[in-house]
Automatic annotation (TrEMBL):
Sequence intervals crossing the membrane: 27-46, 146-169, 199-219, 225-247, 259-277, 317-335
Protein name: Transport permease protein
Keywords, ordered alphabetically: Cell membrane, Membrane, Transmembrane, Transmembrane helix, Transport
GO molecular function: ABC-type transporter activity
InterPro entries: ABC-2_transporter, ABC2_TM, ABC2_TM_bact-type, ABC_2_transport
Gene Ontology cellular component annotations, sorted alphabetically: ATP-binding cassette (ABC) transporter complex
Record's subcellular location: Cell inner membrane; Membrane
Top-level taxon in the UniProt lineage: Bacteria
Record domain ABC transmembrane type-2: where: 112-338
Membrane topology: Multi-pass membrane protein
A Pfam family matched in the record: ABC2_membrane
Family: Belongs to the ABC-2 integral membrane protein family.
Length: 340
């Protein structure tokens, strides 16, 4: 009898949950719409030939007839470069896997890059045996040094989008916002407290993660920590503002989760967290410049790896500042205590 009652209770709860979900048209529709949009977006972005596995910068024009067979190797993206000076820096920073100068028959690779090692073997085995190897100037940047600004920024992005966007939606759904509306608290005070609470948490976590992992890995830091803190502050503020825009009207957690994923995951792939955007289709690079995470990572990498100061990263800071103001203003204007 107890087993029969348990099964009956299980079926009742299962049926109630299914009906609740099916009657929520917004969540139901988003469950189908979200994967379709993601598939359509990636299909459009990466249609045609698959992206090349290797990126080789070529000083001047890419040699054609009569050149070593290396230049006809498939799955290598040969990118013309105007001069060696800036291109060598891209090799140091893993933005290029190799740099070749056909005129002087020389090449550059980063000794810590596995792709650079493979390309060197391919070059020497496909007609480029007489090419001279040049060492990159200064200390070669390890991949971990290159990727750590992106990881810290990505972690702050998800913390901001979920910490503000998702939480406010949950408050609205649970009726917390409705009760707060009846108090003397106004919307500006409530939103300011939410943003400030999440901001100091994001900065504290990023600082502790960086300091803790730096003890074991010893990251490259050629700039000033104060400048990096300014970048983190502006980057986190812009991402918190974006989270506020998401949460301004929605009262459904499933929809909020889907929107955060829909915005967060493409932004992570297109902002250069894990790999360089060098060689991507030009319109994808332009699209990346419309994302706050791109400017956040660019500025942090410039300070940590290149030793840049605030003046050098001022264009990225200006974009982050403008996005912060725009997102916060739009989110505050759209905000409602209750479901519209």
């Amino acid at each position: 009898m107890s087993i029969e009652l348990a099964l009956r209770r299980f079926r009742a709860v299962l049926s109630a949950r299914n009906k609740e979900f099916m009657r929520d048209r917004t969540a139901l529709g988003w469950s189908f719409l979200f994967p379709v949009l993601v598939v359509a977006g990636f299909a459009f972005a990466f249609s045609g030939e698959p992206p090349a596995e290797y990126k080789v910068g070529v000083i001047g024009a890419v040699p054609a007839a009569g050149a070593p067979a290396f230049y006809a190797t498939r799955h290598i993206d040969f990118i013309p470069m105007p001069a060696p000076a800036g291109a060598v820096t891209k090799v140091e920073r893993h933005q290029l896997d190799m740099l070749v100068d056909p005129a002087t028959r020389s090449y550059w690779i980063n000794d810590s890059s596995p792709k650079g090692y493979l390309l060197e073997r391919i070059l020497r085995g496909s007609g480029g045996g007489d090419y001279r190897k040049q060492t990159v100037s200064g200390r070669a940047v390890r991949y971990v040094d290159w990727v750590i600004p992106g990881i810290l920024a990505m972690n702050m992005m998800f913390g901001a989008l979920y910490g503000v966007g998702y939480v406010i939606v949950r408050y609205r759904k649970n009726g917390v916002l409705k009760r707060l509306k009846a108090t003397p608290l106004n919307a500006v005070e409530f939103l300011a407290a939410q943003l400030a609470s999440r901001l100091w948490l994001l900065l504290t976590v990023a600082t502790l993660v960086y300091a803790g992992t730096d003890l074991f890995i010893g990251f490259t830091m050629n700039g000033r920590y104060l400048d990096l803190a300014v970048v983190f502050l502006l980057g986190a503020t812009s991402l918190l503002g974006l989270g506020l825009v998401i949460a301004a009207r929605i009262s459904n957690e499933e929809v909020a989760d889907g929107l955060v994923s829909f915005i967060g995951w493409p932004m992570m792939f297109l902002s250069g967290v894990w790999f360089s955007l060098e060689g991507l289709h030009p319109w994808l690079q332009q699209l990346a410049l419309a994302l706050p995470l791109t400017h956040f990572i660019n500025a942090a990498r410039a300070i940590m790896i290149d030793g840049a100061g605030l003046a050098e990263v001022a264009p990225d800071l200006a974009v982050l500042g403008a996005m912060s103001i725009a997102f916060l203003a739009l989110g505050a204007w759209l905000f409602r205590w209750e479901q519209a």
